[in-house]
Amino acid sequence: MKNIDLEERFPDLQPIDAPPTLFTFNGCGLGLYGQRDVDEETGTYVKTRGLCFLSIPLLSLDAPRLGLATPGWYFRGKEPLSAVAWIWNVLVVTCVLGGVGFGMWRSHLNSPDAKAAQKLAEAVKQADAGRLADAGRLYREVALGETKHSTAAQTGFRNLLNEGLTSPDLQAAAGLLNEAVRFKHAGAPPAVFQGVVPKGVALAEKQAGSGLDGAVSLLRAAAPFATESEIEALAQARTKLLEQLIAQQPDNMDAVDDLAVLYEAEGNFERCEELLAPHR
Questions:
Q1: Contact 216, 255 (CB under 8 A)
Q2: Which of 21, 59, 81, 264 could form a disulfide with 85 if both were Cys (CB 3.0 to 4.6 A apart)?
Q3: 216-252 confidence digits (pLDDT tens)
């Protein structure tokens, strides 16, 4: 052993100034594992030093060449890590980085901003499919939230109103206005609902021939948005459509009640009495 030149015998051996750090607590820490490249002439062999958890090696750090001593070992230097150790390290690091990346991705998907963005995308799909009330609900939920998409949702709701109040589907338009009422009561800016009443009246009058029920429902839903300058025109349009509907459906009590309220509001008590008399 004394006559053997270790540097010549082990050309990859790197000298060390002090024994490497080793410690474990309940199987966790830095330990030595495995055994390879045994050299009987020098009585040395290579072990792998690595991080361990519950005595399971997780990450290989280096590969000291050592020999037996009484007690313990003596360290002769460090050899390169084996190919197996390098591959294991790559796999461990890849798994850790992949797990961290997956966790960050999942966290992003579950963040309020990401969920809000998903709702906005779904709102567009619902609007394209003609489900205006569902689209309005999604826009409303995002607009009332505290994400970076709230302003975009308000704009989306306003655009949806502008488009919805040109739809030939009066029931869908009325459903959208009912969502707008909920949005208004929740504190939405008045600018979102600008022009709702005149557009609603124009749509109801245009499409009344295809369904008085829908036209009446639309104007009933538009009533909460009427400004002082729009109240009279809306009342006149509602009265006209309700009179036509009751002429076709005299037992439609919802329509009768709505028309009676309008007659009373304009002080036309005689017509109100005439309207209600058959239903007493």
A1: yes
A2: 81
A3: 999 999 999 999 999 999 999 999 999 999 999 999 9
